[in-house]
């Protein structure tokens, strides 16, 4: 029998990445820190990899741990789809809404919107997919999602759209990075020429940064990840500067785990949009969710 990794341990590992420490990750999944530490130690033995760098100041993810986190997200997404698909089969008479959202929106805004929707329309069964902006647009165009939420600087062609919020990208570095102490703002030429810890091609963050610095070409990334959390943790570790949504780094800036670097000559504000196909006027649960997001 295959020795599969424990899903709860994978969930804990992802929570450590998302919340910045073992103790915060343990709180997020509702387990005591000693139990969390033992669970991750078992996962390390099972995988044969060191996932955490342990020290008197706490535990941080190793480079291998950062990679495993990205694969763990895929496993957990598939497990969630299995559970929700089975639930849908049980409740065929229940109204169903399939939502696709880019990561920044899915991590920081969508949970609140869905909670409100559950309060107002408790009979609606929601399936949510977390992807990058290009994948969300593709899902909506192909009818795999009833409504999508994206971060790109421009509305995608061929789809209806509505602005639901605004966002700002910020340049951040680790506290010991030379830019943490500089007073002169970073200009567009310098930013474009600097290798960053970056989101993957097709993400709303990467698309927005490239559009803001056009016609300059972005330097190849120092490191590239498919999640905001992995980019943030790598930046905190001092690998390179990063450009992320203020929503994604607010806690790290407040705790001084990251420092914001001033910018000049470049605007990194963007709109967050709902997108959908079919008739221009949304109806049913999709319309309710977009109205909640806009409110």
UniProtKB/TrEMBL annotation:
Domain annotation HTH lysR-type: ranges: 5-62
Highest taxon of the lineage: Bacteria
Residues of the signal peptide: none
Keywords: DNA-binding, Transcription, Transcription regulation
Pfam families associated with the record: HTH_1, LysR_substrate
InterPro entries in alphabetical order: LysR_HTH_N, LysR_subst-bd, WH-like_DNA-bd_sf, WH_DNA-bd_sf
Molecular-function annotations in GO: DNA-binding transcription factor activity; transcription cis-regulatory region binding
UniProt family annotation: Belongs to the LysR transcriptional regulatory family.
Name assigned to this protein: DNA-binding transcriptional LysR family regulator
Species this chain originates from: Barrientosiimonas humi
